[in-house]
Design a protein that fits this description.
The protein is an alpha/beta fold. It folds into two domains: 178 residues, 3-Layer(bba) Sandwich (FAD/NAD(P)-binding domain), CATH 3.50.50; 100 residues, 3-Layer(bba) Sandwich (FAD/NAD(P)-binding domain). Helix content is 23%, strand content 27%. The protein is built from six helices and 17 strands. Strands 1, 2, 3, 4, 5, 6 and 17 form a seven-stranded mixed β-sheet that branches. Strand 2, helix 2 and strand 3 form a beta-alpha-beta unit. It is globular, with a radius of gyration of 20 Å. The structure holds flavin-adenine dinucleotide (FAD). The site of flavin-adenine dinucleotide has 34 residues, from helix 1, strand 2 and helix 6.
C-alpha cells in the first residue's frame, strides 16, 4: 500500500488548491476523489467573481484548476472514500480502489451530507455500511437491505446478490435509481425507509409497509456522511467544525471548502485549501520529527 505525506479527499477547488500547496511544500500528495470534477462548479453557468479570471463557465474554470493541480506532481486516484481510520503512525482510507495511507488528511468533500435515517449513525460498523465493494464480503451468505439514495445503488445491490443469501432493495425517496436494472435475485421493497432497527447491532429495517429482518444495511448515497468519514470530527449545522488553521481537532486531520460551511464560494474554497495544506505540511513535519501526534 502506497504511503503519502498528505491525502486529500475531494477534487473540487478546495482539494486541488490543497494539492498544489502541499506540493509547493514538497509533501508527497495523493488526491482521492470520486470523480475528477466538481459537482457544484459543473452546475455554475458563469463564474464572474473569481479574482483575476475573466467570467467563464464553472466547467471551464474547473478544467483550469485541474490542469494546474495535475502539473504540481500530486498523484490522483479516482475512488470513493468510505472511511478513514487512525492507524497510529498514519491514516488509512478505505476506498473503492483499495486502501490508501497518509500521515495527514485534508477533507475537501464539498457540501456536507449528514446521516439521516433514524438508527443509522449509532450502528455504523455494527450492521450499517456505506460501500458494498468494501464490506460486502462480511455479509457472505447473510441477509442484507440496500437503501438506495443514489443511482449507483442498484449496481451495489446486484453485486451483493452474488454473495448474500437475500438482498432487499429499498429505493429512497430522493436521488431516484432505475430499478429496472435490478437482477431478479434482488427483492424490491414497497414503501420507504423509516428507521434502522436493533439494539447493539442491526436487526431489521422499518419501512412504512412493514419490517424487513436483516443482518446488515447498506446505505448508498452519493457521499458518505461527513461525520462518518473520520471518527471524532464534529459536524454542526451541516458543516465540519475547524479552527483558523483548518484543523478539525482530530490529530493531523484538516478540512477545507464547502464542507466547512458557508459562504459556498470558489475563492473561499481555494483559500481554505491553501491554509489546510500549509497546516498539514507543518503537522507532517512535526509528526515525523517527534513521532508524536499533536496536530
Ligand atoms: C449553481 C451554482 C452556481 C455557483 N456559482 C458560483 C459563483 O458564481 N461563484 C463562486 O465563487 N462559487 C459559485 N458556486 C459555488 C462553488 O461551486 C463551490 O463553492 C465550490 O465548488 C466548492 O468547492 P469544494 O472543493 O469545497 O467542493 P466541491 O467543488 O463540491 O468538490 C467536492 C469534491 O469532493 C469529492 N468527494 C465528495 N465526497 C467524496 C468521498 N467520500 N470520496 C471521494 N471523493 C469525494 C467530489 O467528487 C468532488 O470532487 C456555485 C455553485 C452552484 C451549485
Amino acid at each position: 500500500m502506497a504511503m503519502y505525506d498528505v491525502m486529500i479527499v475531494g477534487a473540487g477547488p478546495a482539494g486541488l488548491s490543497a494539492a498544489v500547496n502541499c506540493r509547493v511544500r514538497n509533501k508527497s500528495t495523493v488526491v482521492v476523489s470520486r470523480k475528477f470534477e466538481s459537482p457544484s462548479l459543473s452546475k455554475a453557468p458563469l463564474i464572474e467573481n473569481y479574482l483575476g479570471v475573466d467570467a467563464m463557465s464553472g466547467r471551464e474554470l474547473y478544467q483550469r484548476l485541474l490542469e494546474h493541480a495535475r502539473r504540481s506532481g500530486a498523484e490522483f486516484l479516482e475512488a470513493n472514500v468510505t472511511g478513514i481510520y487512525d492507524m497510529g503512525d498514519s491514516y488509512a482510507a478505505l476506498t473503492s480502489a483499495g486502501d490508501v495511507s497518509a500521515v495527514a488528511v485534508i477533507l475537501a468533500t464539498g457540501t456536507v451530507q449528514s446521516a439521516s435515517i433514524p438508527g443509522e449513525s449509532d450502528k455504523v460498523g455494527m450492521g450499517v455500511s456505506y460501500c458494498a465493494t468494501c464490506d460486502g464480503p462480511l455479509y457472505k451468505g447473510k441477509r442484507v437491505v440496500v437503501v438506495g439514495f443514489s443511482p449507483h445503488a442498484v449496481e451495489e445491490a446486484n453485486f451483493l446478490s452474488e454473495i448474500c443469501s437475500e438482498v432487499t432493495y429499498v429505493p429512497a425517496s430522493r436521488g431516484g435509481s432505475d430499478v429496472s436494472h435490478l437482477k431478479p435475485a434482488v427483492n424490491l421493497a414497497k414503501g420507504s425507509v423509516k428507521a434502522i432497527l436493533g439494539d447493539m447491532a442491526v436487526s431489521g429495517v422499518e419501512l412504512d409497509s412493514g419490517i424487513v429482518e436483516t443482518d446488515g444495511v447498506f446505505v448508498i448515497r452519493e457521499s458518505v456522511p461527513a461525520e462518518r468519514l473520520v471518527e471524532g470530527i464534529t459536524v454542526k449545522d451541516g458543516a465540519i467544525e475547524v479552527d483558523r488553521d483548518m484543523f478539525t481537532g482530530v490529530p493531523r486531520v484538516f478540512a477545507a471548502g464547502d464542507c466547512t460551511g458557508r459562504p459556498w464560494q470558489v475563492a473561499r474554497a481555494v483559500g481554505q485549501g491553501q491554509v489546510a495544506a500549509l497546516s498539514a505540511a507543518r503537522a507532517v513535519d512535526k509528526f515525523k520529527a517527534s513521532g508524536q501526534a499533536d496536530q
